[in-house]
């Protein structure tokens, strides 16, 4: 019997001492990477030296050893894994210091999920560890992420801003229930001050746009839980 090819995900190490944020980052990344996590600098450095990773997400304000020293130690040990620094230290001096030590990119808190994923994927693509598929589909709905366009039964439909992001997220997780919290974190960022009820407004807008070109509602409301795009 012929065996199907196994597609290996890139390996990402996330070093962050805030457990809630660490859980969010892991959740953001597991769709396209195998994730290892560490809550302090010493453990993170140990993992980085013991195993080969395709990218490292590194906080600066870490217990045991700070991110700057950790990065310096890795580069001194000839470990050239691409590093995305993720921190609240947003001064130009801190950024330049990070790049001088060998960081590849720098993202300051607070941040949006989409920007974090885009920057991490860019590092992985630069390292030839990840190749992103730029098209999504669910039944007659097709999304081209590269051109930011959506067609339904071949007919172009306009979904501005967050509505485009919302429909893309629903299609990425089609036939899966997404809670309001998951949708909110995806679209606005886990630390956003926007009210959770805004999701209902955007769901309504997406439904209205789809209704113009479809004869049935593919977005199902799961009472007191969230929503699901059902194909």
TrEMBL record:
Residues 133-231 form the OmpR/PhoB-type domain. Keywords: DNA-binding, Phosphoprotein, Transcription, Transcription regulation, Two-component regulatory system. One of its GO terms (molecular function) is transcription cis-regulatory region binding. InterPro entries: CheY-like_superfamily, OmpR/PhoB-type_DNA-bd, Sig_transdc_resp-reg_receiver, WalR-like, WH-like_DNA-bd_sf. Residues 11-124 form the Response regulatory domain. Residues 133-231 bind DNA. One of its GO terms (biological process) is regulation of DNA-templated transcription. PANTHER family: REGULATOR OF RPOS (PTHR48111). This is Two-component response regulator. It comes from Lactobacillus selangorensis. The lineage of its organism: Bacteria, Bacillati, Bacillota, Bacilli, Lactobacillales.
């Amino acid at each position: 019997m012929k065996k199907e090819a196994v597609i290996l995900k890139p390996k990402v190490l996330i070093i962050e001492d805030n457990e809630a944020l660490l859980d969010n980052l892991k959740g953001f990344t597991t769709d396209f990477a195998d994730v290892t996590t560490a809550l302090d600098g010493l453990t993170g450095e140990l993992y980085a030296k013991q195993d080969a990773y395709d990218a490292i997400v590194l906080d600066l304000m870490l217990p045991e050893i700070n991110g700057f020293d950790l990065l310096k130690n890795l580069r001194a040990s000839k470990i050239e894994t691409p590093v995305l620094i993720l921190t609240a230290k947003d001064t130009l001096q801190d950024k330049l210091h990070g790049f001088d030590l060998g960081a590849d990119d720098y993202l300051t808190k607070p941040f949006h999920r989409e920007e974090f994923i885009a920057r991490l994927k860019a590092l992985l693509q630069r390292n030839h560890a990840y190749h992103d598929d730029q098209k999504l589909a669910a039944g007659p709905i097709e999304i081209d992420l590269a051109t930011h366009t959506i067609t339904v039964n071949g007919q172009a439909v306009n979904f501005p801003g967050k509505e485009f992001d919302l429909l893309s997220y629903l299609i990425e997780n089609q036939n899966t229930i997404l809670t309001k919290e998951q949708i909110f974190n995806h679209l606005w960022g886990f630390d956003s001050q926007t009210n959770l009820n805004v999701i209902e407004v955007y769901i309504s807008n997406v439904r209205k746009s789809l209704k113009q070109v479809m004869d049935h509602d593919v977005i199902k409301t799961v009472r007191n839980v969230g929503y699901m795009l059902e194909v």
